[in-house]
Design goal:
Blueprint lengths: L7 E6 L14 E6 L3 E5 L8 E7 L5 E7 L9 E3 L16 E3 L27 E3 L2 E3 L2 H13 L30 H10 L13 H6 L1 H18 L9 E7 L10 E6 L2 H18 L16 H18 L2 E6 L11 H10 L4 H11 L2 E5 L7 E3 L9 H9 L11 E5 L2 E8 L2 H20 L10 E5 L11 E2 L2 E2 L1 E2 L2 E4 L2 E4 L5 H17 L2
Helix pairs in contact: 2-4, 2-5, 7-8, 7-9
Length: 511
């Protein structure tokens, strides 16, 4: 009888497979959906009718799942036994306690055990930060807090009387109030989730109580706009560290995931819609990030189309791939607000945004660590943050006079057709303008990660030496940009080979 279809991976340990043949026992089975990455663990010395499965959940979290057979004579609802994993000095014993419910399918003698597994920190975790070793939970939390807060920079003060470049007359961009329909639509579009922020209120509760919350939220939102103050309690953010790659014991190999209050998300989504409708015509056409109907695909299509047209005309096409360092966390509040004032933001709206950005308190793991305050950058996980960022970087494309550019958020490509050494010199001038813009806006380029790729089918291309701040940019035959591997001939052979190799490895993991 087939209990599970192709949507599941089935792990099992049958009766009699135990090394102790004299023991009576039964088979165990667990089915995991193929959308979850899972693998069977081999536990040395384990002489039980049991199987251990490692399951990778969302946001990089992992769950260790054990399925154990208990003979029919075990008339108990809960079973606790001696440790199932041998203990050593690095891995303390893991005691297992589980409940199970027998279910009979098609009147056959098949028991399906429903396990309610809660998170268990059965490994003693240690972490290194600044060459210091941390072992207990509080110290580890504080180490994460210190590292995540180290990326913030002191922001300059905003003075509305400062001179700024402005092409507008008067206050063109303003938000005076929020309507009943705005709140209803924002709650309706809120994603249902069990994830909670510092306030411990999941979004599905809000969606289920919509009719009782609309008017109170409407009053609070309009009061916030009228007083130009964003509530402090909605600026509290819970931070979860997610492992990237490298050494798992190195604090710097983790990135923070921010979880905001759902009330803050509702308010922000309303403000975002009202703001975007007023500024969408001001955003550079070179920007493809955080814009409806634009994406990484449209960004790369535009670049590919330009490369092909240069191939057809027989010219060389030099592309400078840049890399900004932690740009989202480095946005200077004073410079941002000055730019918003320059494009016509109403002074009341700017004051509200200043309250929204400043004094945001971040907590690691629900205040296990000490709290720390973000002094720069857009709020992570927010609706308004990406829009404010593209408005901050929007004037970057205006500094280029002799070349073209494409943006996907902070991913900048600068390119020009190269027919002679003069064209290369003009492209170098654009790099000098880029560096000056970064200096003026207090952003930092990872020059070591910036590179040059010359697209051409000529036998002898012009290999000009490009520099940023007197540092020579590396030149290569391939570059990975927005997930696609590009080569000088634009045949994508290396990208295809890489994708095929990854596919085979994934298939092999489930064989």
């Amino acid at each position: 009888m087939a209990l599970f279809d192709e949507r599941y991976l089935v792990y099992r340990k049958d009766r009699g497979s135990s090394s102790n043949s004299s023991r009576r026992g039964g088979g165990v089975l667990v089915a995991i959906k193929i959308c979850l990455s899972s693998r069977k663990l081999d536990v040395p010395g384990l002489d039980l009718e049991a199987t251990w499965i490692s399951v990778k959940l969302n946001h990089g979290k992992k769950m260790l799942l054990c399925v154990v057979y208990f003979p029919p004579s075990s008339h108990v609802d809960t079973h606790s036994d001696s440790p199932l994993v041998p203990e050593d000095k690095h891995h303390p014993a893991l005691s297992v306690s589980m409940s199970f419910v027998p279910v009979h399918l098609d009147k056959r003698n098949v028991n399906v055990f429903r396990l309610d597994i809660k998170r268990a920190d059965f490994l003693t975790m240690c972490l290194f930060y600044n060459n210091v070793r941390y072992e207990n939970d509080c110290d580890i939390a504080n180490a994460f807090a210190d590292y995540f807060s180290s990326v913030f920079k002191p922001s300059t003060d905003f003075d509305g009387n400062d001179e700024c470049n402005s092409n507008c007359v008067g206050d063109l961009i303003k938000i005076e109030s929020v309507t009943y329909y705005d709140v209803v639509l924002a709650i309706r579009e809120l994603k249902s989730s069990l994830t909670v922020g510092v306030d411990n209120i999941p979004s599905f509760i809000i969606k289920g109580c919509t009719e009782f919350l609309i008017y109170p939220l409407l009053v609070l939102f309009n009061l916030s706009l009228r007083t130009k103050v964003f509530p402090d309690v909605w600026k509290q953010t819970r931070i979860i560290p997610v492992f990237k790659k490298g050494d798992a014991q190195n604090c710097e190999n983790y990135r923070p995931i921010a979880i905001l209050s759902p009330f803050s998300k509702i308010f922000e989504s309303i403000i975002h819609k009202k703001l975007y409708n007023q500024v969408k015509n001001l955003i550079s056409t070179s920007q493809h990030g955080f814009i409806p109907k634009r994406s990484t695909a449209t960004n790369l299509f535009c670049l590919t189309d330009k490369i092909i047209s240069k191939f057809e005309s027989g010219s060389q096409f030099d592309v400078i791939y840049t890399d900004f360092s932690k740009v989202f966390d480095s946005i200077d509040f004073g410079i941002l607000l000055k730019k918003l004032h320059g494009i016509g933001f109403n002074v009341n709206l700017i004051d509200w945004l200043l309250s929204y950005l400043c004094n945001r308190t971040l907590y690691f793991n629900n205040a296990v660590s000490h709290e720390f305050t973000s002094t720069s950058g857009g709020p992570q996980g927010s609706n308004l943050g990406p829009l404010l960022f593209i408005l901050f970087i929007n004037d970057l494309t205006c500094v280029f006079k002799y070349s073209e550019s494409l943006l996907f958020a902070d991913d900048l490509k600068l390119f020009s057709s190269i027919r002679s050494d003069l064209d290369s010199v003009l492209l170098q001038r654009e790099l000098d303008c880029l560096f000056k813009w970064c200096t003026d806006n207090r952003l930092h380029l990872n020059i070591e990660k910036c590179s040059v790729l010359s697209y051409t089918r000529k036998a002898q291309p012009l290999n000009h030496v490009y520099k940023i701040s007197n540092l020579v940019l590396s030149r290569s035959n391939t570059v990975t940009n927005l997930g696609i591997i590009f080569d000088t001939k634009l045949d994508f052979s290396q990208h295809i080979d890489t994708m095929v190799s990854k596919t085979y490895r994934r298939l092999g993991a489930h064989v």
